[in-house]
Structures are given as structure tokens and as C-alpha cells.
Amino acid sequence: MDEIDEFWETHPSRYSALAAEKLSKSFLDNSSAPGTEEDESGRDVEYARLEVHYLFPDLNDAERALLLFLAVERRCLNYGIAVLRCHRTILTTESLKETEASVSETERIFSALRQRLLTSGIMEKLTPFQQEVVKRKFLNIYFGEDPAPRG
Questions:
Q1: In the Cβ-directed half-sphere of 22, how many Cα atoms lie within 13 Å?
Q2: Could you give the CA distance from residue 123 to residue 116 in angstroms, rounded to a whole number?
Q3: Ranges of residues in the chain whose predicted pLDDT is under 70
């Protein structure tokens, strides 16, 4: 059990405040940023985990984990789509095939997680505001063709 989960167990009324505080510290703290892609990815996942804890404190661990996995796959898919859109002409044939295969696999995983979320009953547990957040931040993919995300 990590610090946030422990705090939830002992101080549920202050849980959102702690998650918000850790979220802002995580966002503003660049001191632990050696700059490697792996470190950046780890910070992204930690940021997403804190965000999910903050936005959905009433969900259980499994429900929050599903949202976290969905958020991470969505980010990867959006990144892959952006790479293909912006760099398609400069990628080697081999790199292009690898990138397309990776994006296809990420899309498959994202679609499966999205479907699981929509059939899990989680959406019915959320407030209307939280449902809108899920639709905008977790279920939509931006293809870059127009300013409105699709989902």
C-alpha cells in the first residue's frame, strides 16, 4: 500500500486534498528529471495515477486501475497517431512499419479497455461532471484533423 492509499484508509475526508497536493508537486517538481524517456514515462504514469485518485476518490482500486490503464493507453495512442501524422514522410520504411504496428496494437488495447469501462458499470457510479471528464479525458482520441476530439 502506498502513501496515498494509506492516507485514504486513515483520513478519507482529507484524501482529495493530499492527492491534489501530490499532483501539483509532481507536476512542478523537475528536480528528479534526469531526462530519459523511461523516467519521463514513469512520471507520466505517476501523474495519471494521482489524477485518477483525485478525480475519482469514491471508486475502488480495481475501478481506478482500469481508468489509469485507459489513460496511459490513450496517451500512447495519441502520441503514436501524432508521430504518424507529423513524421510519416521522414521515417524509414522499417520504422514506419514498426510504428504503424505499435499504433495498431495500442489501438487494440485501448479499444478493449474502453469497452470494458463502458460495460463495467463504472460510468453509472459517477456524477454527471465525472462522466463528462471520463468522456473527454479518457475515451476520446485526437486525430489532429480538426480541433474537436473524437470518441
A1: 21
A2: 11
A3: 1-42, 144-151
